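INTERNAL AUDIT FORM
Audit reference: QA-55
Scope: verify that the stored structure record matches its stored sequence.
Auditor: D.O.
Record contents follow.
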Amino acid sequence: MTLVTTKKLLLDAQKNKYAIGAFNVENMEMVQAVVMAAEELQSPVILQTTPSTVKYADLDYFYANVKTAADKAKVSVALHLDHGNSFELAMRALRVGYTSIMIDGSHESFEDNIKLTQSVVEACHPSGVCVEAELGKVGGKEDDLDGGDNNPYTDPMQAVEFVERTGVDSLAVAIGTAHGVYKGIPKLDLERLAQIKEVVSIPLVLHGTSGVPDDVVQQCIQKGICKVNYATDLRIAFSKGVKEFLNKNPEAIDPKKYNAQGREEVKKYVMNKIKVCGSHGKDKSTLL
């Protein structure tokens, strides 16, 4: 296989009421773990990097990692820029070879968000690359991303106008999730999600899902979510594996050994979330 765009993946998920898991990766082992999990469960999968991640190692490094994994994979793999924070970064990702781009103008005014999103859509669509945007603000803090504490939820009628004017391919909605680690169990506005689904025809995306109970995620999928983002919990899983190995083997000096245990923990986590999303057995790579 080679890298694919997210268009057919998300449309099939939307049609058949499941979701594609989108997993943020930080290193080679996490890339391997996500793709290994997807292959074992015959699931399409999306790998993502944030601006802070690509600042650490640049777009080219992550593209090379994911492209290599995708070329060897027997399932559909897409590479997505998560929370792209500028037109310039979005264009760099497009030129490098990312097959899906998010432009996050949610911190701008409604009109400025539309203008920024339009510009990225107009640049990406000629190459067949899909664009995700965000309306409303997913709260919490993670890396350089600060959604604030009092985030406005997505307004359904604004969502209609936003989608029509931008031509965006998928929309991240704010219904009560937050980035980072939750202090308690989040309470999501599922009625708002249903209202957005009633008036917006494109695939909807759920951000800040690490820590959201699995049954609530599945309710969101039934109400229209087609892409589910996981980030914080992958970091926790990888770190857990590395720490456990080093605690048992304090003299260890070979990164391959402790990183391998981190990779295994990420793989187990991703396999679980693929099943939660309902995408296991849904890969249609031969049709793409």
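Auditor finding: record pair retrieved intact. The first strand starts at residue 20 and ends at 24.
Action required: none
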